[in-house]
Amino acid sequence: MTLLEALRWGRGALAGGESPDIDARLLLMHAAKVSRTTLLAFGERPLSTAERALFEAFIARRQGGEPVAHILGEQEFYGLALEVNPHTLIPRPDTETLVDLALALPAQPLRFLDLGTGTGAIAIALAAQRPGWQGIAVDAVKEAAELAKRNVARHQVAVTVREGSWFMPVRAERFGLIVSNPPYIDPIDPHLGQGDVRFEPLSALIAEEAGLADLKYIIEQAPAYLQAPGWLMVEHGYDQGARVRELMQQRGFGAVRSERDLGGQERVTLGQWRDN
């Protein structure tokens, strides 16, 4: 079987899935240890017996619903390859909207806090793009914090990872920017039983009060940890923008607005804190 034949077979095996072409290509590249350029330019190269067996095993796992990121053990986010595992959310392109907004702030040095960091994706992307920034990344799950530490070490950025719930690990500290992609899915949302989210930890997905509980807590507590002026930026569900804006305004944040993700849905809300 050649690379091209394997790719065609993989696409067919995954037909009916969300992205059979992309999934088959990524899995084949990993199994055969080839780049996308090699795959396109040298499609007649035969697979070894071991490469074919590995690719077929990958396809079988994907047919069972396992996310491609978990099969490969990594996911790209903001141009960075990050290790992933079942203890954290898989970084998604929509979250890059939050990174874009943070990077639109003045580039002078600042300290930032990433709450519920998971893989460390947001914090690492910010520190990689702004070498003058220093970040603290927090996660309550030990395995997630350890994973984030490995990703920080991999990319050699100025981020310190601490284990603990929300603001507990940063008592009495202040930041110019607080970012978070907290759990925001309603526990009764039917999508929790569909697609890749079936393989992700519920603790990183769901929140009480129709998905708003953690967002409410972060918005309420954030001013105690923000320098003035400082910014809070949070990711949320596509239908939660109006409520999150209301919560920020009620808490005393100014310049509150929401930004849309790649699909045109309201995904990130930000507000500026000044001493009131």
From TrEMBL:
Residues 5-73 form the Release factor glutamine methyltransferase N-terminal domain. One of its GO terms (biological process) is methylation. S-adenosyl-L-methionine binds at G116, T117, G118, T119, G120, D139, W166, N181. InterPro entries: DNA_methylase_N6_adenine_CS, HemK-like, N5-glutamine_MTase, PrmC_N, RF_methyltr_PrmC, SAM-dependent_MTases_sf, Small_mtfrase_dom. NCBIfam families: hemK_fam (TIGR00536), RF_mod_PrmC (TIGR03534). Belongs to the protein N5-glutamine methyltransferase family. PrmC subfamily. This is Release factor glutamine methyltransferase. It comes from Gallaecimonas pentaromativorans. The gene is prmC.
